[in-house]
Amino acid sequence: MSRYMSSRFDTLEAYVPGEQPQDMQYVKLNTNESPFPPSPEVLSAVNAAETGRLNLYPDPEGTALRARLAAMYGVEPDNVFLANGSDELLFFAFMAFCDSERPVAFPNISYGFYPVYAQLLQAPYTEIPLREGFVLNPSDYCGIGKNIVIANPNAPTGRAISAADIEEIVRTNPDRVVLVDEAYIDFGGESCLPLIQTYDNLLICQTFSKFRSLAGGRLGFALASKGLIADLEKIKYSVNSYNISRLTTVAALATLDSNDYYVENSKKIQANRAYTTAELEKLGFETLPSLANFIFARCPKVEGGALYRGLKARGVLVRHWDKPEIADWLRVTIGTREQMDIFLDKVREIVREAG
Ligand SMILES: *Cc1c(COP(=O)(O)O)cnc(C)c1O
Q1: Whose CA is nearest to atom 2 of ligand 1?
Q2: Nearest-CA neighbor of 240 among 54, 85, 114?
Q3: Does any ligand 1 atom lie closer than 6 A to the CB of residue 107?
Q4: Does position 41 have pLDDT exceeding 70, yes or no?
Q5: Looking at 108-248, which runs of residues are DSSP E strands?
């Protein structure tokens, strides 16, 4: 127990982020970053002129960036909300929409921040078990009368559901918010964005951290009805009205100007995903079909924790959780072809040694 901290946090278990070693000696396949740097346009946008304006606060309304995102996605600026990473966006959403009368439900195997935010904000939550093979059954969420959070594609499984399935969930819970976390949507999944025109209770979260190679810039955004966006704005202006920095703003605008570069990178990642999956299956691994920039895989011979440690000892970082349902599994971020070949070589070495 802390001497000074409020006792309401005594049982709170904070989120544990993936390792971020500062000496850069690892092949880093553990936190789903892009292996590709930001586009050259981003590098020149974050320039001396903008740095020279850091004495001034940024635009609290994020006018330019919201207008650009709105144009790109065919919505109005009032349908767009900006946050300091989608983690902040998720926090604002839990704060705005969840309480003891409005509990929240999400899958038992999903993004680790969801239960942390529910606990932090003292909102009751239900973890709905995924079905056999980590499959999300949409009917488990239809008409449950709760706020719902679904990552689509899901993390760490990589599995996705269709926009039609999302629509059923949104349609049958009209008095509650359905938050669809589309952090990985640009690696092959089907976005449910068109549904925000019909459903006031659908909140879509996306991020610049994965597909757009800007994890270090911290930018997430929501697309939703004007009503839900206004609710999020109320929370934002009660917490931190200048939540997006000037440098991140110019970097993000330049990112949207070079969309083709990122689409090309996503194609490379999807090809490397197919290649890595096929190579792991040759070694007898079980893998799940992924529409994200990572794969979830289990080795028949080496237990998950041992494989994680063996790879780390050989300079390759992947993600492993001690949670019993997934303790045999590893989540491997898809990097460049060269990175995946190093990863596969080390896996072959470890599997060979295991006999
Ligand atoms: C990476 C990730 C996020 C967080 O993204 P940031 O924008 O970097 O905060 C949110 N949700 C899921 C499912 C993620 O995997």
Answers
A1: 183
A2: 85
A3: no
A4: yes
A5: 125-128, 147-151, 178-181, 202-207, 220-224
